[in-house]
Write a structure and sequence with these properties.
The protein is 10% helix and 27% strand. It is mainly beta and 254 residues long. It has a single domain (17-246), classed as Jelly Rolls, CATH 2.60.120.590. The longest helix has 12 residues, at 38-49. The structure holds 2-oxoglutaric acid and fe (ii) ion. Fe (ii) ion (FE2) binds at residues 132, 134, 192.
């Protein structure tokens, strides 16, 4: 293989999530560089891009889709399953990786034992998301699949007066085709956000907490990541699902 060529596209799942733990973070976060193949990435991106226009919600810089639907008062009104292209291959792989001997997968202790909601965010270069917490609607396990481009997700601490310390405590680099799982204190105690940058800078073994788990650290040896459009799929379990959901008329569904 030449020094500039990419390694071949392979799926590489750990036999236990422990192998993928980001050890510099409080319990627990996991990073799997190769959760889907190139072909699977392309197929999902194609589905995202060709979704009906009404599926997209346009914010100032970013646009997003929610599947199967938005939440209303923290409740999922639409109890239809996720579409097949969001279910396969991602959910089945997620549910196939043990956390420990007594925990067969990461959603073992969530109310529906699986993710029932996917938020799709599209970030062109120079686009980010303000530091925030994900709030009370979800079980505190967040599974994010990244497509199309790498970027850094930052984790922030609230200061004692409630203000956000603008300097991130940790930075996680998410490569395309990767899966990041964050849980527990990282959900409840810390904030996460993405800076609106054209280029992530100053990246190294010392500044990126998952450096040892990256697929291609050599691509960033100058410390830089030139962003292209990155699409993320955020899989979560919404705690409350309306029993009426399946009975709502088409007017209430998107
Ligand atoms: O795109 C991401 O990785 C983060 C998205 C996010 O934090 C959110 O939508 O709540
Ligand atoms: Fe979030």
């Amino acid at each position: 293989m030449g020094s500039n060529s990419q390694p071949p596209s392979v799926i590489n799942l750990p036999t236990s999530l422990e192998e993928s733990r980001i050890t510099a973070l409080p319990p627990a976060a996991y990073y799997i560089a190769d959760v889907i193949s190139d072909e699977e990435e392309k197929a999902i991106l194609q589905k995202v891009e060709t979704a009906p226009k009404a599926r997209w919600r346009q914010l100032t810089h970013r646009r997003l889709q929610t599947w199967p639907s938005d939440l209303v008062k923290n409740t999922l009104l639409d109890s239809r399953p996720l579409p097949d292209w969001l279910e396969q291959p991602v959910v089945s792989r997620l549910l196939s990786i043990p956390v420990s001997e007594s925990e067969p997968h990461i959603f073992t202790n969530s109310p529906h034992s699986r993710p029932n909601h996917v938020l799709i965010n599209e970030y062109p270069p120079n686009t980010g998301i303000m530091p925030h917490k994900d709030g009370g609607a979800y079980h505190p396990v967040v599974c994010t699949v990244s497509l199309g481009s790498s970027l850094c997700l930052n984790l922030y601490k609230s200061k004692d007066d409630g203000a956000i310390d603008p300097e991130p405590v940790w930075r996680i680099l998410q490569e395309p085709r990767s899966l990041l799982i964050t849980t527990a204190d990282l959900y409840t105690e810390y904030l996460h956000g993405i800076e609106p940058l054209e280029t992530d800078v100053n990246m190294s073994e010392d500044t990126i907490v998952n450096w040892n788990l990256l697929r291609s650290p050599e691509l960033y040896k100058d410390g830089l990541n030139q962003r292209e459009t990155r699409v993320s799929l955020t899989y979560r379990d919404v705690l409350k699902v309306s029993k009426l959901g399946g009975k709502l008329g088409p007017m209430f569904k998107k």
